[in-house]
């Protein structure tokens, strides 16, 4: 059961490491959310990058307390998460985490949900 929970979430990071390209957690997180060429080094820089790339977003006030519970509760959607001193993306239940620790008990401090436009078939 827990194996489903700890999905392999490092494919993009593994590919970058194979190319010898290591990046900051903020940049890796934004790239997982399809925002390229940005690496803010200050708090509001992420919001500015989202606006610059015309991404619709909302700050989630009521969110899970740990990464493990957040992934369990959010299998669909794109999220920018912060934990102590670190940024992580969660896209459809898969984490992009440069520490490669996965969905553990780190406390989620802030959540920004990226609102994807609805596309009808």
Descriptive labels:
121 residues, alpha+beta, 5 strands, 29% helix
N-to-C series of helices and strands: HHHHEHEEEE
> Sheet with the most strands?
5 strands, antiparallel
Q: How many domains, in number, for the residues? A: 1
Oligomer state equals: single chain
Counting DSSP E segments of at least 2 residues, the number of strands comes to 5
Low-pLDDT segments, ≥5 res: 1-19
Main sheet: which strands, in order across? Answer: 1-5-2-3-4
DSSP strand (E) fraction? 15-25%
* Number of contiguous helices: 5
Helix fraction bin: 25-40%
Q: Globular, elongated, flat, extended or rod-shaped: what is the shape?
A: globular
Mean pLDDT: 79
Give a written overview of the molecule.
This protein has helices at residues 2-5, 11-18, 25-32, 45-52, 67-73; strands at 56-59, 78-83, 86-91, 94-96, 110-115. It has 121 residues and is of the alpha+beta class. The protein has one domain. A five-stranded antiparallel beta sheet has the order 1-5-2-3-4. Strand 3 (86-91) and strand 4 form a beta hairpin. Residues 1-19 have low confidence and may be disordered.
Task: Outline the fold blueprint.
Elements: H1 2-5, H2 11-18, H3 25-32, H4 45-52, E1 56-59, H5 67-73, E2 78-83, E3 86-91, E4 94-96, E5 110-115
Antiparallel strand pairs: 1-5, 2-3, 2-5, 3-4
């Amino acid at each position: 059961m827990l194996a489903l929970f700890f999905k392999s979430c490092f494919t993009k990071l593994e590919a970058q490491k194979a190319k010898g390209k290591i990046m900051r957690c903020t940049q890796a997180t934004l790239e997982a959310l399809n925002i390229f060429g940005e690496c803010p080094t200050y708090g509001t820089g992420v919001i500015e990058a989202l606006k610059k790339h015309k991404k619709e977003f909302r700050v989630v006030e009521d969110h899970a307390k740990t990464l493990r519970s957040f992934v369990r509760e959010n299998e669909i959607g794109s999220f920018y998460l912060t934990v102590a001193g670190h940024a992580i993306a969660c896209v459809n239940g898969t984490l992009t985490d440069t520490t490669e620790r996965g969905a553990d008990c780190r406390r989620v401090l802030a959540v920004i949900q990226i609102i994807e436009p609805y596309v009808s078939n």
